[in-house]
Design goal:
about 725 residues; alpha/beta; TIM Barrel; eight-stranded parallel beta barrel; six-stranded mixed sheet; about 15% strand; EC 3.1.4.46
């Protein structure tokens, strides 16, 4: 690979180790960073000085923000000026190193799990990190030299002294005067000095200039530093709505001056720009593989992500051949980026490289079949803001609570509704693409089929019909052009042989939940089940749902990275397909160069071992033991034959007047669509036909299956 500017791969700097999971600057955090990162990863240490002059690694000048000192050394907090601002807290300048022996590191970011806080993680000195961890490189950050000078502690003397026994690859500081004072003491071939920029409007204390103004004079920076460390927003600004603005010239300008450029503030568990679709690898790639510039390194709380981006995904073209087998199946198209089942969601999924498009089929009052993720219009549209609000009703057989159902409106009425993007994690203030939350138009089934057949990039035609009764699949059994897929509607840990044998009588493959493969307990993997291996032993391919990019959708074990999760299901559990709201992430995963390497697979592309994090949870923080999921029994699968089907006016069970006919005598014509009086219920099975050249398709049906079956047969003939 050829990297812009220096020609070397960008560096990965692990801020406090793997601080996105374990307490910052702890042994656990440093160990994990070394285990799952590129071989030349740099360990970052924020240096604070104790009362007796020891240099310790703690991320915040206020010790209570990263340790349990407030409960161990009570009533010893004080108020000091920090950069001119009166600040109350516990400060290292008031304690000797022996006094801090019983103070332990804790997770300082409250949105992250605290379950590892009971490990008694002692505060490490700079020498501890260098000698016990033996990192490939060490980065010392000196954030508050002036503060320590005010308390008669000499950071310059400490750095010069420790450098005699510890090799620091990089030393950074946001204070110009400090870097000037040490510049002549370090050979840049051995230790490089880096000027750290803070917010553009913040004042650099030794020059009394804003960091924004200092950025305009990189020639001066070059006189005392070999590089600059800037917040990522200096390079790719975002507006107040969290959308990317055009990139700046910071990287190019700094490179012209001979300065290296490092970007900071990378974390997987904070809201990213919506342009990245909650995919942290996409964000990393925008800084290292955009065709115009590349930074020389990234400072991150999650070093596995840039490690993977740099060595597995960078410079891999969209036309690169797939290195992994899983079928990428969309969930209502690219529903993470656009309102589900709209033309825009489907076109985006095709552009993203999806293998199979899905269409959950609903029926309008006039019998028109169309694609929508839910039979309840409230879930996918702004119908409650329309004149159809008076159609709200309760049908517990379909869905708990009230709803406005598709069969209450004609197709022409549904076309007047505004689509609404799904926001499954709005309780966490994580929203999907708000700028396009109400765009696109819904498609009839025939429009969807036409769109699919015109997409040459799709691997085949895939049609599924979802029903509340597995007996529906039997009706398709004689259609040997179909691959029939059975959806298990509950979490399981295994399946009895008799149940699997029963499934094989009417289905060719199975859909299961993620929890049926890797069960969780309070967002920690509790183990691995036998579900996939059992089904595959009967030659039933297994597809798993639903994969999402938002970090809160993933167990902590997957390190807040959707690619880590997908890799663990594909390479660890050997699943045959993934059903996802974000097909771009899964499709890109299949092309990465780190797959298929056998024993040479790098650690950052290795699969997560279930329960690997549980071993670091002490008894105080251990979640209660959960009962295991049930084993799928034959009684869960076996169902009686379907009852006769009634066809008549499209009134569902809300009004009568239907005549009864047998399913096999239904007219193929769309004009004969009627609504079965059989109660509608949540779906269980999905059916999928075999691939055909020229398009890919997944169609889900939640009602009136018999009529739709004959109509689909006509469309596909």
């Amino acid at each position: 690979m050829v990297w812009l500017f220096v020609g070397n791969p960008p560096l990965v700097i692990a801020r406090g180790g793997f601080s996105g999971l374990f307490p910052d600057s702890s042994s656990l955090a440093y160990n994990l960073a070394l285990e799952v990162s590129v071989p030349n990863v740099l360990l970052w240490c924020d240096v604070q000085l104790t009362k007796d002059g020891a240099g310790i690694c703690i991320p915040d000048i206020r010790l209570e923000n990263a340790t349990d000192i407030a409960s161990v050394l009570k009533n010893r907090n004080k108020v000091y000026e920090v950069n001119g601002v009166p600040t109350r807290g516990w400060f290292s300048v008031d304690f000797t190193l022996p006094e801090l022996a019983n103070v332990f590191l804790t997770q300082g970011v409250y949105s992250r799990t605290n379950k590892f806080d009971g490990n008694g993680l002692r505060i490490l000195t700079v020498q501890d990190v260098a000698t016990t961890k033996k990192p490939p490189g060490l980065w010392l950050n000196i954030q508050h030299d002036i503060f320590f000078t005010q308390h008669n502690l000499n950071m310059r003397s400490f750095v010069l002294s420790v450098s005699k026994s510890v090799v620091a690859s990089y030393i950074s500081s946001p204070e110009v005067a400090f870097l000037r004072r040490i510049a002549t003491h370090f050979n840049p071939r051995k230790t490089k000095l880096v000027f750290r920029f803070l917010g553009q409007d913040e004042i650099e204390p030794s020059t009394n200039q804003t960091y924004g103004s200092l950025l305009k004079n990189l020639t001066v920076i070059k006189t005392f530093a070999s590089g600059i460390l800037v917040p990522k927003a200096y390079i790719w600004p975002v507006d107040r709505s969290l959308y990317l603005q055009p990139h700046t010239s910071v990287v190019v300008d700094a490179h012209k001056e001979g300065l290296e450029v490092f970007a900071s503030d990378f974390a997987n568990d904070v809201p990213l720009s919506y342009d990245y679709s909650y995919d942290p690898i996409s964000e990393c790639l925008s800084f290292i593989d955009n065709g115009k510039f590349s930074v020389d390194g990234v400072l991150t709380d999650f070093p596995i992500t840039p490690s993977t981006a740099i060595n597995c995904f960078a410079h891999v073209g969209r036309n690169a051949s797939a290195q992994a087998k899983p079928l990428v199946i969309s969930k209502c198209g690219s529903s993470g980026d656009y309102p589900g089942c709209t033309d825009l969601a489907y076109m985006q999924a095709i552009a993203d490289g999806v293998d199979v498009l899905d269409c959950p089929v609903q029926l309008a009052k006039d019998g028109t079949p169309f694609c929508l993720g839910s039979i309840n219009l409230i879930d996918s549209t702004t119908v409650v803001q329309s004149s159809f609000l008076n159609l709200t009703t309760n049908i517990p057989e379909i869905k708990a609570g009230s709803g406005i159902f598709t069969f209450s409106l004609t197709w022409s009425q549904i076309q007047t509704l505004t689509p609404a993007i799904a926001n499954p994690y709005n309780v966490y203030r994580l929203f999907r693409n708000p700028k396009h939350k109400n765009v696109g138009k819904f498609l009839t089934l025939s429009d969807f089929l036409a769109l699919s057949k015109n997409a040459s990039s799709l691997t085949g035609v895939l049609i599924g019909i979802e029903s509340s009764n597995s007996s529906v699949l039997m009706k398709f059994k004689d259609k040997n052009t179909y691959e029939l897929v059975y959806k298990v509607d509950k979490n399981i840990r295994d399946a009895h042989d008799s149940a699997v044998q029963n499934i094989k009588t009417f289905a060719n493959s199975v859909v299961v939940s993620k929890a049926s493969v890797f069960p969780e307990n309070q967002a920690l993997l509790a183990g691995a089940t036998d579900t996939v291996s059992k089904l595959q032993s009967f030659k039933l391919p297994v597809y798993v749902e639903t994969f999402q990019n938002e970090f809160v959708s993933q167990a902590w074990d997957f390190l807040s990275d959707a690619t880590v999760e997908i890799n663990s299901f594909v390479m660890g559990a050997n699943v045959d397909g993934v059903i996802t709201d974000f097909p771009k992430t899964a499709a890109r995963y299949k092309r990465n160069r780190c797959l298929g390497l056998g024993n040479e697979t790098p650690s950052y592309m290795s699969t997560v071992q279930p329960r690997s994090l549980m071993q670091f949870v002490t008894q105080t923080y251990m979640p209660p033991v959960q009962a295991p999921y049930p084993v799928l029994a034959n009684s869960d699968v076996a169902e009686p034959p379907l009852p006769p089907v009634s066809v008549g006016a499209p009134t569902s069970r809300l009004s009568g007047g239907s005549s009864s006919v047998n399913m096999n005598t239904l007219d193929d014509s769309l004009t004969n669509f009627g609504v079965a009086e059989t109660p509608l219920a949540p779906p269980v099975p999905v059916r999928v036909p075999t691939s055909r050249p020229g398009g890919g398709l997944s169609i889900t049906m939640r009602n009136k299956w018999a009529d739709l079956m004959s109509w689909i047969n006509k469309l596909l003939s």
